Amino acid sequence: MVWIMVLAAVTLLLAVVAALLWYRVWQRQRQQLARRRDEQQQVRLELSVIARAVLQRDMDPVEGALRLAARLPYCPVPGSLEAIRALADAAAALDIGAAYRALPTAEQRRQDQLRKTLANQYRTALAVELLALAEHK
Known about the structure:
This protein is mainly alpha-helical. Helices cover 81% and strands 0% of the residues. The chain is elongated. The N and C termini lie far apart (65 Å). The mean pLDDT is 92.
């Protein structure tokens, strides 16, 4: 009889421990999901801000495409956004920041001309995708 009570108490204790552990796992999963949703919301906001900056001509289209393409893997977005990805791929070889400023003037002009050519080449498709991103929140 005593053994049955001891086994019942151990079983009850194990069930309580299992329930507490399950609750902790469930809480952690909820926190991770909430964190992931917050991060994705932040990326969507960044995408929207960059898209509006390019549409309002506050940012160069090539720079905008590069920035957008760098953030796209971190958030589900509407459509395929092929123009943004294609423009970013085409501009990936261009120097930016300090590397651009360190270039000789002739090379800077050549790269500037290439940037303009790329922006003109993708202008229409890029505008459509930027509008979709600017409204996506």
